[in-house]
Design goal:
Length: 414
Amino acid sequence: MLLREEFGELLKAAAAEPGVCWLPLRHHSPACAAMALEQLQRRQPQAVLIEAPGSFIRHLSLLQRDTVVPPIAIYQSGSYYPLAENSPEWQALRWATAQGVEVIFIDLDEKAQEGGVSNRWSDSRFLSSDYSRRLQQQLGCRDADELWQRLFEQQNFASAESFFTQVLLFCAASRACFGTDSLEEMGDLARETQMRAHIKAARRRYERVAVLTGGFHTPALINFADEAEAIVVDDTQDSFVIRFSDALLDARKGYGAGMPYPAFCRWQFQQRQLNADDWLLYLLEQMPQLPLIYKKNCFEHLQALCSLRGLARPGSYDLLDSLGSCLIKQQLSASTLEPWQKVLSGDALGQLPADQPSLPLVEEVLALCRKARLQTDKPGRCHFDLYAMMDKHIERRRLLCRLLFVGSGFARPQ
């Protein structure tokens, strides 16, 4: 009962500041991206505040260029700040660019934070909280990602405002599972102090602002009126915008702030206007070498499965469940679904303007790859005979061996 009262007070405090449009997010969530666009269009803020280190603002003009195609990332001091097409932050940034609205990055820079925190944009804590685990058990979900999909990606909401209210409550309940010591140890309290200071400063300048932050932080930002000034960090040249890939975005491969199956998430955002049946047909069209009769069986099975699970539209878990049920006759194993999982994971590679400088070491390696006539502009595989003895073949073999030795992922023996 005490928590229920606290959450009621939280909603009242959020509503008491009509000049702030609160957009609590899960990073890379297609539903959050779509709903954020809807709220931005409806509320028409004069400034968009985004959870990103303040020093990254030096890259804003590049991020606003039409020739930049996600997935991309900003790299700094061994950490990455990725942006996919279905990232709410990317869509908000592009909306602000189109509307001529100021963009402000409000997070604390890593060098201004005592004791670096690895992967500080990870969503793992609110997804792995006791509250989340209990919901998973109650709803019969296999993991936290399936729970998120069922609650937010696969349901219809009356409005974007009601959607973000539910996200805020979910994140607030998850945050309540962590004590102050844990929050301080992970650097959350210092970062949230910086964010509140930026919000206060923006409200002095503008009547209407939108605040996009990880939902885990939003409950701590709403009472910002008494915050001091933000920490100002000198402009640094130690961050770079780089190309990213679907493989690096995939939560199944260890990215803590990611969602599983990046290509599927991109489809969810791109095809968000489709009704449930058309969305189902679109998904089946993406599955390789699926005969018409199998598509028909899967279509009917998926419809029934969504009805049974109380879902408005299928997600990646439901799609794979249906494919496994309809098409696989032998015992289901981890490798059985691999061909379809590969399609859902995707192979997209971001693009940057040709005049954009990259990390010095990366630029050197790319130059060596181009000299060796290795393809670097799009994902794919090339096979080479390691026994060719011409000078150019020897140099290429040496380069591939060096890349293999450092574990770059660019080369592997077969």
